[in-house]
Design a protein that fits this description.
143 residues; Jelly Rolls; 5-stranded antiparallel sheet; 1 helix; binds dTDP-4-keto-6-deoxyglucose
């Protein structure tokens, strides 16, 4: 696995049971596999366009754990100082995305399904959607 060089990020390795022809079973437990209580779960599927880009924002307080439970995509991470891109293609390895981490998702393979566990309910005021605002926010907030 690539070393994560951006702040507010981390890997999550899930337990996976391989039942052969009967498939795989992976488990996500709050406060065990994920270092926060989960208040919201959402998923993204039906990604038909390899040129699609999602994300392009950061959060002020929210913690999220992102899993690619089918297919693959490229995760772009930017903490305002360091940037990196990671191919996400392992269904039992997830990523923590903490506050103040600009993230983008692109280059989706066919049938990609992204599952996200979030530390709080949806709140549009928690989003920073403008990149210059993000850099300013990073400058003014110790995280
Ligand atoms: C991230 C990726 C993987 C809601 O109403 N409730 C929700 O819980 C969410 C996540 C979204 N929405 C609405 C708000 C927007 O009108 O759905 C629309 C698209 O949401 P968003 O811009 O958040 O979508 P993505 O896919 O660009 O980003 C989301 C997360 O925000 C992001 O942090 O990692 O999914």
């Amino acid at each position: 696995m690539d070393e994560l060089i951006v702040n507010q990020s981390g890997y999550i390795q899930l337990k996976k049971f391989d039942d052969g022809d009967d498939g795989h079973l992976s488990i996500i437990e709050a406060m065990k596999d994920i270092p926060f209580e989960i208040k919201r779960v959402y998923y993204i599927n039906n990604l038909k366009n390899v040129t699609s880009v999602r994300g392009h924002h950061a959060h002020k307080k929210l913690y999220q754990a992102i899993f690619c439970i089918n297919g693959s995509f490229l995760l772009g991470l930017d903490d305002g100082k360091n940037r990196q891109k990671i191919l996400v293609d392992n269904d039992n390895v997830g990523f923590i995305i903490g506050p103040g981490l600009w993230h983008t998702m692109s280059q989706f393979s066919n049938e990609t399904v992204i599952l996200v566990a979030a530390s709080d309910y949806y709140d549009e005021t928690d989003y920073i959607r403008d990149y210059d605002d993000f850099l300013l926010w990073i400058e003014n907030n110790q995280i």
